[in-house]
Amino acid sequence: MQVRTGDMPLARAARMRTHWRAAALAAILAHAWLPPGVASAQPAQALEQPLSFDMAPQPLGQALIELNRRTALSIAFDPRQVEHFQAPAIRGVMTSEQALRQALSGSNLAYSLRGQVATVRQQEVAQLMPVTVSGDNLPAYIADTPTSIATKTSLPPRQTPFTINQASQELIMERGDANIYDTLEGFAGVTTTSGNGDIGQSMSRSINVRGFSTGGAGQLLINGQRTYSSASAARSPDSLERVELLRGPAALYYGAAEPGGIVNYTYKRPQAQAAYTIVGRTDSKGSYGSMVDMTGPLNQDDTLLYRLVGSYTHTVDDQDHIFQEPKSVLAALTYAPNSRFDTTLTYERMEMEAVPEQENNMRISNRNSPYYGQYYPVPRDFFWGSLNDRAVTETDTLLWDARWRPSERFNLNAYANYQESKQWWQNTRVNGAGNGPDADGNVQRYVSGRQARDRNWSFGLDLSGKAYTGAFRHDWLTGAGYGHTQTRSSGRQVAADSRPGQPYTPGPLNIFDPDYGNWHYQDRIWEDPLAAATKRNDLNLYFQDMLHLPDEKTRLLLAMGWAQFDSRPPDNAQRNKISKWSPRIALMHDLTPSTTVYASYGESFYPNELNLLDMSGSYITKPQEGKQYEIGFKQDLFDSRAMLTAALFRIDKKNMPMSAQPDGQCDPLAAPAPGTPGTTDGSGDCRTSLSGLERSQGLELELSGLITDWWAASLSYAYLKTEYVDTEDPFSQGRSKPNMPAHNLALWNKFRVYQDPVYGTAHVAVGLRAWSKSHNAWRDPAVGTYYNPYSRTDYNPGYGIVDVGVFYANTLANGMDLKLQLNIKNLFNKTYYDRNRFANGTTIVWGNERRAMLNAQLSF
């Protein structure tokens, strides 16, 4: 099939205009490292673009695959339903949707269209006429784009027996998400919290899903591939087509992982239709940025496609002298000679530079200070550091994938990636914050700095297909994956008095008259050599069968995976090598063609620390193990334009480390004695048992899509109950885990308020993110703290943040599409705090103040 616009003379003229525009955009992209520019492709407009088709009659399944590749549509269909039908010839100029209708004209099948996703179904399933979303209509927002992260086969979330959340690039942009943390917190039940790491909370935050941190075990997928980047690391979403979250255990396919869930970033991929977009943005705090996005074919027969995205942003923080500056370039090539084979090579260069933000204020515990029990008397935006404090990461990522689909009975997917990352930081912090300032207002400080290097790669192969035993259909899958990572960092931190006799301290800071300057010893960060590498290998094998019962309403998923985790420290003295089988079972039943109920069970494992000794004197290698039980309901609503999901779940995580000796029976300061049995007379080192158990359970609800032809929404609610079922801490026993709100609401609504063919379209949007109260760690209520005696913990009050947006879109006289967008974040300027460091505790990290953001977008 060839896709061309217009006749030959017009096509030549169009190509000349396209080449001129591409050259201009390439010049802009070449300056992507300098301030201004932003971009994103506009799929709704691509669906309306007339195309010239020349497709011969062929089997319907092949025709749908061809349309899926050649147009902006993402077509989901059941091969068994289409295998007996022939698609007629499709020739002439028409839109993508008109071509799909013609392909189905010789069958008894229909389709429903949600944004870019067309789902082909039996006529009785699609009860009404297809719903078309035009460029003047609302975005679909529906979280039902086909994905492979849940079952390793490309299925819409509507057909999977697990909970999958999706945020499209369009939703991310329209909400005004400033970074990946904003996007993840758009999924109800997902929270992010700051840590005490010197790289700063703006660069790395803990991500919690279903009551468990996603951890640092490489639980980030990119294009469905295992990488050893961390989902908790800051990045811009500009290179991403969408962000996905699979809730629950994923050890079957991806090995060692926490049981709460796994995050997947889907990069933008080349498209067969030429599209160019430029976006510029600024805000009321003085931030600015831009992005350029271009895609299209590189040859006449559209078998070689490209995508090029460049992005730069400089975000000014509420705190003085704090900023974040992500830069990225993404380049991708797709080669698709026919409907049965395609391969894509993607490269991304991402740089992130920021000033590390840590605690904004601290409580003073010195009884001799006039400020005892209070926070430092400084403004909210006070800066504690040096002007040349920095946290810098540079990451190069190369991904390759190939798909071969010779028939419905056999498919092959292969993939590989390579990634290198360099990182360094310098962070100036208060030394002995609890002491408070001296009589003149001076506060002592220290500097911490370190460099690190990471290198990792992974590859894998999936074989899948369909087989039949009588009236039963089997969607089978078998695959294997391997991953390797190695990390090196400088041997010691540069800090005050870390090298006796060498005064590297930055000097005091006067809180009443601060005189900031650079730290003069930054070269010391690179003076220490990198230590020997810590290495890790992961190996996975998995087998899966999705059994379709003869009633064509019931499906049974049976899967088993074997994973090996091998962690090797530089000296190999405490090597941790774990092998684990992980089953997965799920049952799905379609109550109606648009309603599905399901039940599922899955397991996960996560290695314990390497330095734990049991009572026999052996190092503990047995991993923590998670088990999840989930039941759910998925329902198409409003003529299949929206989807409602509901899930009840329970996760038990066992083999949590606990002290093997009661208080007083070991010496915490005694050196570990491997190979020697533990003692109980109080003289020996402390040992560990794996008898701890943590539990989380809850309810999750989501409604996404087009509610009416003038109202689009992404609405979600989560209830979470966590518990320390068995723990060595008597004050935490039977109580909830810290920093985990029980209730969370995430709402975003967009309404069309004006539409005119000449003057354009206007929309307004309103969103709400709300969390109930949370708390810090539990403590002895008979003691409490110096600032809150006889208290069991510190509570962070619940809060809600209202965001609004105004949108205008119109087609200019030259045919270009203009979009203007104004967002106001935290409309009522609500005062709130980080969940880990808040006003009722010992340190404060302020939440973001009100901010107005303006975006302008030009597409052609």
TrEMBL record:
Pfam families hit by this protein: Plug, STN, TonB_dep_Rec_b-barrel
Membrane topology, as annotated: Multi-pass membrane protein
Location of the protein in the cell: Cell outer membrane
Span of domain Secretin/TonB short N-terminal: 73-123
UniProt keyword Magnesium, yes or no: no
Chief location bin: membrane
InterPro entries with a match to the protein in the record: Beta-barrel_TonB, Beta-barrel_TonB_sf, Plug_dom, Plug_dom_sf, Secretin/TonB_short_N, TonB-dep_rcpt-like, TonB_rcpt_CS
GO molecular function: siderophore uptake transmembrane transporter activity
Keyword annotations: Cell outer membrane, Ion transport, Iron, Iron transport, Membrane, Receptor, Signal, TonB box, Transmembrane, Transmembrane beta strand, Transport
Family: Belongs to the TonB-dependent receptor family.
Name of the protein described by the UniProt record: Putative siderophore receptor
